[in-house]
Amino acid sequence: MKCKSAFVYSDALLKYHFYPDHPFNQKRVLLAKELLQYANTLEDSDILKPRSAKDEELLLFHDHAYIEAVKKASIGKLTKNQGMEYGIGTEDTPMFPNMHEASCYLVGATLTAVDAVLGNHVNHALNLGGGLHHGFKGKASGFCIYNDGAIAIKYIREKYNLRVLYVDTDAHHGDGVQWAFYDDPNVCTLSIHETGRYLFPGTGNTNERGIKKGHGYAFNLPVDAFTQDESFLHLYESAFREIIEFFKPDVIVTQNGADAHCFDPLTHLCTTMVTYEKIPMLAHHLAHTYTNGKWIALGGGGYDMWRVVPRAWAQIWNVMKNGKLQEGSMPSKWITKWQKKSPVSLPEKWHDDKKIIPDIPRRKEINEKNNKLLLNALKYAKPKNG
Amino acid sequence: MFIENIMQTNVTTLPPTATIAEALRLIQEQHIRHIPIVDEEQSVIGIVSDRDIRDASPSIFDKNPKQADLHKEIQTIMSHPVITIHPLDFVEEIARIFYDEEFSSLPVVSKNQLVGIVTEKDMFYTLIQLTGTHVQSSHIEVKVPHKPGILPEVAAVFGKRKANITSLLVYPYKDDPNYKVLVFRIQTMNPSPVIQDLKEAGYELMWPNNLMEFQNYEV
């Protein structure tokens, strides 16, 4: 199945850059884009240039004082002490020149994707530069300054008045987006992530279900450390299918962090490319089943930027555009070009070799725990009058 | 710390067909406030609290109470579905359920069978030792020799990397009095530099443990 899809990209997205060794590196977006170009699945006509976000769009979610602080930091006028109040200038989210402008482009790119889909120009749109789900109303955190996902959903609510299902498969809990819509019954959030008992940010327990009118519209699947493909995908697929049937959204927004892979240095999950193939395949299928194809996909975390993220992200586009995954050998030109820069051997195939899958002695117990939390999380995902 | 370490395993239960009068007698005789309702398979299908039971009981001022109400089945007043927990859940995770849902007891279920119960009182006992999971943070556990001066030594590693410590707990290491486990929660999404420094300084990490060490762990 071929779909009309847009790949939102410009080099402006690469300017969101803290410092050379910082784990969050937007070169990942460029690596994925070039991988697709060398694989001949991304043409120039697919690429949509992003705009920058305006202040009033940032204000849909963020506090005025916070935006002003980011602007000051952007020109080196925010002191360290002033920054602390806003989570800026920490080890995770340091200040850098023009950080406001760079962040506005990430947000603008996500809004560009939204308008492309909801203006009926395309079925699906992808902004790999977005998905900064830890950004709070008045505080930067976890590598995220402005929360493009939360802003985009506010924008969809305001401009298009549609009901949104947000699905976050990053290994870290999508806390910023969850809290943004915690009392809103028109936005349903689903986050599958490594349990917060060890991992940042620590929230995302199944009992976080929303408050007031929004109660029952936040879903969390905090899977055990060392969870592997089979169990991760079982939870993802069961929950996504059941929740979309329950909520019946008008549009799907996915956050596609690629840090649940066993190679990822920051998390303790043990999935492989199998997971990153199934994630967009199911989102694509459900978009065509429930939302008339309306699907906006964003990037997110992913800290093995050479071996994992480019392939994982490229497959989202392959599914969006052609309805199928790339298989077999990776384009040799891509490998030749980037191997020189990479400290690790670049993968030769789109799939992972089975040899990389570690043997986890506690697998049965982990799977049992994960199944139990799935049932617990879905306890209220039933039609209200059913 | 796991729930199975603090749960009560001797749980008073009733079948759904028991009468309200039986429940009333149980809470008075055993000084308990919650009765899980279980089916033949010991699967939890409901729960009643002392307040549910008392709401269904006649007032002490009522001269001619209607005894018929007390002979109704307990399933007519039980709450369901029931939020349950697992023996291998962490105490600090379950604390959030107690807080957010305002429950005062939670049945513990494994393989679909009731295996215990945890009450507020059990939690408070445990929570004296636990804190600090309510803010964004990452978790690091270090096994250290139990000797004077070790804590500032380890904490200095965090200080050098400007990692803000949001909570620190000192746990015993199994039954061995010669070691302690220091549990730090630090305000960063990227604990790798600190972890690297701790390893280089020769400290033994209980978490994150690398996969090979994990594989050697006897289950």
TrEMBL record, chain A:
Top-level taxonomic group: Bacteria
UniProt lineage: Bacteria, Bacillati, Bacillota, Bacilli, Bacillales
Similarity annotation: Belongs to the histone deacetylase family.
Domain (Histone deacetylase): residue spans on this chain: 22-319
Pfam families per record: Hist_deacetyl (PF00850)
Protein name: Acetoin utilization protein AcuC
Keywords annotated in UniProt: Acetoin catabolism
Pathway involvement of the protein, from the record: Ketone degradation; acetoin degradation
SUPFAM superfamilies: Arginase/deacetylase
UniProt entry tagged with the keyword Hydrolase: no
UniProt entry tagged with the keyword Ubl conjugation: no
PANTHER family membership: HISTONE DEACETYLASE HDAC1, HISTONE DEACETYLASE HDAC1-RELATED
UniProtKB/TrEMBL annotation, chain B:
Cross-referenced Gene3D superfamilies: 3.30.70.260, CBS-domain
Domain CBS: 7-63, 78-137
This protein's record includes keyword DNA-binding: no
Keywords: CBS domain
CDD domains in alphabetical order: ACT_AcuB, CBS_pair_AcuB_like
Location of the ACT domain: 139-219
Keyword Zinc part of the UniProt annotation: no
Highest taxon of the lineage: Bacteria
SUPFAM superfamilies with a match to the protein in the record: ACT-like (SSF55021), CBS-domain pair (SSF54631)
Coiled coil: none
InterPro entries xref list: ACT-like_dom_sf, ACT_dom, CBS_dom, CBS_dom_sf, Diverse_CBS-Domain
Record's protein name: Acetoin utilization protein AcuB
